Amino acid sequence: MSNSISILKKYWGHDQFRPMQQDIVDAVLQKQDVLALLPTGGGKSICFQVPAMLMDGVCIVVSPLIALMKDQVQNLNNKGIPALAIYSGMSFPEVKKTLEAAVNDECKFLYVSPERLETRLFEEYLPAMDVCLIAVDEAHCISQWGYDFRPSYLKISLLREELRNVPVIALTASATLDVQNDICEKLLFKKNQTRFQQSFARPNLSYNVLEPASKANKMIELLTDIRGTAIVYCKSRKQTQQMAELLQQHQMSADFYHAGLTNEERSKKQHDWINNKINTIVCTNAFGMGIDKPDVRLVIHLGIPESLEHYYQEAGRAGRDGKYAQVFLLFDKKEFNDHRELNNLRYPDFPLLKKLYIDLMNYLQVAAGNGEGQSFDFDISSFTENFKWNILQATYGLQALAQEGLFYISENSYKPSQLVFTTSKTALFEFEKTHPSLEPVIKGLLRSYEGIFDYPCFIYETMLAKFLSTPIGIIRNHLQLLHKMQMVKYTVASDKPQIVLMRNRMYADDFSFNVKNFQERKRKHLERIEKMIAFTEDSNTCRSVIIANYFNDKNLTSCHNCDNCKNSNKAMLTPNTFKNISEAIHNQLQDEATPYSKLEKALHNFDKEHIHEVIRFMQAEKKIKTDAWGNFRRNG
Fold it and tell me: Quick one: which of 21, 282, 310, 552 could link to 232 by a disulfide (CB 3.0–4.6 Å)?
């Protein structure tokens, strides 16, 4: 214990572990297989990084998030702990150099994306590595019964079989009991396995679920009343931009974020929000993974998430500093059926999946019996337009095919420019004599990128321009000329999603798909939807207790902090109060559109939730209506 505390103090600056971390560290040091369920922001990385520092050899960390891998590697290196990472987008020489460093004990932590585990190069170097620990982050991804199943995670069992005596620690923020059992089974946990589950209680969080007359108005009200950094989760990319613009119109500091932005755009928006240049980030669920901003005071969901797993993880980004924070889920009852119908769209029938697969292979121009390991830029808009697919149906169908392990999709994975010489050194020497203007860029390439004659290398035009003290435009122009003259093969950088084929294209008659498992995943998905709907509709049970029970934490008592706990002691809306509020609303609404802020100001003597309740009734009875911006009018 003293050794682990000294490591924690030396590298992380803490005098003691958080609750349960010490027990997890000790179990790992005793070489037990460990499953650790720690809430978002609960310090999962400490649980494998500290014990690995006390063990001889390299710790292999499997993680699905490239951005998170890069961030953790950078953080470890900043502490003086050597760490490296292997992920999609790296060139062959870069991967080889990284693996050689791991074999030669030049790094303590090797972060690996799950897709890289099954490459021949990784398999070739693995036996020579002195591996002390395997850490599996986001471990729920290995379970096809979970909410974020990724087939590539199943390959971790092959790693386990190769390293039979090496302990495994699996870490996740949220997993039901079924998923926990599946994780242990898929990772081949031994009999001396140990499970740790931290309480799902977040006593500083106030969970609130509302059905407002206008989500947009309620969002503005909440952001006006609750000061501090905020996240607003939306259901679509279009909605993120609309809501951010609406907040800006109300002189609020806000910006939008979604996976359709370029890497550069996303990085800037994320940086501005983390550094408090932007107060509110309006985003899809693409935002937040791996981001640890402790002072988020408010999280708003403009719609029902797919599952309690998603909700708990996203809501849990509030109040990581332990101070009071509020979470609001704003819903409309019609979303219930929308989610149920989405289940059928997300899990299409076999004939449709087969057609989608054939169309995709034709779009990528892959011949039957070929394609394994190949990577392709993929524009889903172009694909759906060319093959007449509904974009939502195609999106979910592609996810289903990816979960079958036929390929994986890396959304907006930045792929640097790539170049390899396609001529002999003798011919290149003669070429330089006759094209002296291109000689500097040729020399610059040869000096900057080792092995560029033998392997395609990722190159960075900006660095080359700086090295040669030449404008970037000229550098790119010269590279294009060399390509046209067939001296090099030059592929310009891509910021598009990538599809990587995990298997050769199947012949149409041989197309196979595990329908039984697929139907079971569909059933489980609908089950998760119904649990989320039940959470939304429940106006009596403590929100924290509902969440804890869902994740098999049976010891939680009422939080006295959520809307249900508070409402249990709240005065009911009486008929007389209802009459007074409805008359006041009717009198306030004239011929012109009236914003909610003006209406609320006029009704300041009444309880806000009572006002919302009356407005909902008046809308249902078609006595009043709202426009696109949430302004109110009399109806007729």
Answer: 282
